[in-house]
């Protein structure tokens, strides 16, 4: 089992754990940001982290691994490779995520959804919606980092390699904004 301390060290060693004042993709503000691409640029880290995600779902009869763009592309590929199945990705579309490029999910197929960093759960929910629309079975959710400390429940087995409760703020309530800290768009 890969310890949370090791996962945190991977983010630190790759320069992916940042501190400051950040506007997240969700629009929320935070003093901590996980720049996943600083980790995902290193194949050895991707392999190590995805091997652990795959190990956690190896007994769940996964038939397909699905991730949202963009980081989920690499994760779905590598976890799918480790589980001996396909790894595909869902792209942004009108009103959510969609499958393109001829990707299909078979009805009844057991699908593992993977994503890099969970903040609000929006990308994961949009990806899960595709699983349900395909009449497939959501078998689980695998995450590199859960910034909510486990506060979001997807209703299925969810495995996070690193789970931390990281402060996030609505812009109007952000103490960093009130203190005049420069804002970095992510």
Q: Can you give the mean pLDDT?
A: 96
Radius of gyration: 16 Å
Just give the CATH class.
Alpha Beta
CATH topology: Rossmann fold
Helical percentage: 25-40%
Tally of structural domains: 1
The secondary structure category is: alpha/beta
Shape: globular
Describe the structure.
The protein is an alpha/beta fold. The chain has one domain: 3-Layer(aba) Sandwich (Rossmann fold), CATH 3.40.50.2020. It is built from six helices and nine strands, in the order αββααβαβββαββαβ. The protein has helices at about 5-15, 35-40, 45-55, 70-85, 120-135, 175-180, and strands at about 15-25, 30-35, 65-70, 85-95, 95-100, 110-120, 135-145, 160-165, 185. The protein has a six-stranded mixed beta sheet, sandwiched between helices. A three-stranded mixed beta sheet has the order 2-1-9. Strand 4 (about 85-95) and strand 5 (about 95-100) form a beta hairpin. The longest helix is centred in the N-terminal third of the chain and has 15 residues, at about 45-55. The radius of gyration is 16 Å and the shape is globular. The relative contact order is 0.19. The model has no long low-confidence stretch (mean pLDDT about 95).
